[in-house]
Input
Amino acid sequence: MSTTFITKLVHQSKQLYSKLMPIPCRLCGDSSQLRSICDGCMNDFIKLATVCPRCALPLQHTQHCGHCLNNPPEQDLSISLYRYSDPIRQLILDFKYHNQLYLAPFFGQLLAQKIASTSQVELLIPIPLHPNRLKDRGYNQSHELAKSLSRQLNIPVNPHLLTRVIDTPSQSSMAFKDRKKNMRNAFKLSHHSLELPKHIAIIDDVLTTGHTANAAAKVFRKEGVATIEIWTIARTVKADFND
Ligand SMILES: [Zn+2]
Ligand SMILES: [Zn+2]
Output
């Protein structure tokens, strides 16, 4: 049997399955879906198209933004899919706080499509939760996302290398000026002797002020990692938070 024939057969079986066993869209309830979110709702997600490559803020051009030129963040590159606003915001909150782990492969697949297949990244590092929070929540959404990306892109993931040593209050509940201060020294490496790759990607759900990612990236830079990328599902755009 040819591959084309098999692909066609798989496609037809999926279509038949979706007719017999429709999956309701998790946002609007429309039930003729092959995946968790219907095309109509996907169209409501605001894609980040032209952005500053270093911090992923929307721009009219793809050069570095003024902020990154004057005060460069620790990461070399930021990749984010959507602007952090409803309905993607609600979906991320469900993923993060309400055990909606079916969203890990959904987001992972979308993000993997945006990452070039030629990516030179050698290791994925999920932003860790403090052990107290991990105990309460039962899972780390960034690790779930990183596992899905790892499968899609065939890049290993290490969830134990970076640890959170300060149990910081939720970043989103703090005043902007307090966030940076709060993040300093929040992370450390668990194995200093381990040889690190030259090029890594740090995985988080949302890039907000960038202070979390920056603090994590700093830890790896200190250990001699040459290129650090930050991959997130969504990015807060400055107009969306008060500073
Ligand atoms: Zn829908
Ligand atoms: Zn920038």
Q: What stands out?
A: The pocket of zinc ion (ligand 1) is lined by residues 25, 27-28, 30, 37-38, 40-41 (CB under 6 Å). The radius of gyration is 19 Å.
